TrEMBL record:
Source species of the chain: Blastochloris viridis (Rhodopseudomonas viridis)
Keywords, in A-Z order: Acyltransferase, Transferase
Presence of the UniProt keyword Acyltransferase in the record: yes
Protein name as it appears in the record: Putative ribosomal N-acetyltransferase YdaF
Gene responsible for this protein: ydaF_2
Superkingdom assignment: Bacteria
EC number: 2.3.1.-
Amino acid sequence: MALFRAVPWSEPAVPAIPGAGVVLRTPQMADYEPWAELRTQSRDFLTPWEPLWPADELSRAAFRRRLRRYARDLREDLAYPFFVFRIEDDGLVGGLTLSHVRRGVAQSASLGYWMGQPYAGRGYMSAAVAALVPFAFQTLRLHRVEAACVPTNQPSIRLLERNGFEREGYARRYLCINGNWADHYLYARMRED
């Protein structure tokens, strides 16, 4: 069930989502340079929490491919990617995605996010997640949003719990992070929470 009209990969397909001091909007080609700069600047900070980056991860061509994949995922109601910008200066601070959207009896999605190192610990991602939750439940009409967190990532654990996610379990070797299969805590938040 595609909720938004199909658009070329360079155009936003979902309205911007305002939050407390942040705004979430779908990535656009004009975001390439600030995205590549922030990801480059934050690489060492992000490496322990992310999958391995391909050799061309930060290239313009790879970003174009990313945008085409995002457009397809939006069109097919598979994922909803957003970049997070500070309202005060429209500066890019990070990104988050509702992925693995499941319809039918599940009505759920998985939440993933990243924060640029200069902006970590300032509340931007917490505000972004707080803004995204109503979009997931009211606009997308999901019943459940899931998240997974490496047990040593205390800031992420605090962020999820602060935003009403409850720990539901422990999954061994759940995701491949930085080239290794890593155990994760599993979290979820329901529409009625």
